[in-house]
Amino acid sequence: MQKAFNDQFNAELQAALVYKQLGLELDRLSLVGMRDWMREQVDEEFGHAHAFSDHILARGGQVTISTLSVPELNIQSAKDAFQAALEHEKKVSGLIRDLAKTADAEGDLDSRQLIDRFLTEQIEEEDTVNEILDRLELVGDDGAGILRLDAELGQR
Prior knowledge:
By secondary structure, the chain is an all-alpha fold. The protein has one domain (1-154): Ferritin (Up-down Bundle), CATH 1.20.1260. The chain contains five helices and no strands. It is elongated and about 55 Å long.
């Protein structure tokens, strides 16, 4: 279980880096509200990593940071950035489900509260990004609509 939790800890760190890169890409596109939304996601993902590292340490384990990388992203629009965010959230959701299966197979009941929290959170994360993508689809190439959404997301 320690390895499984360390893997998830590192996946959360990687998610923070993905959001950081997406924020940088949105900044390059002068969408600073969306950039700020991504920055909030970075902090949230680091918080997730802390929750997993705290769990490992509380159970007498050792936390190990592995080599982290960000997949190559080709971001040309806000829609590209949020599509990449959704795909990464789906990946993380799968990892959390796999962690739950591993914990169940190992009979690790003590980890269920933490895992269940993240199963629920991943549903919310995917839903939020899907909603933003739906709204980007609605505004299409309308610059004013994109800027309104950019301003709104910057208020997060």
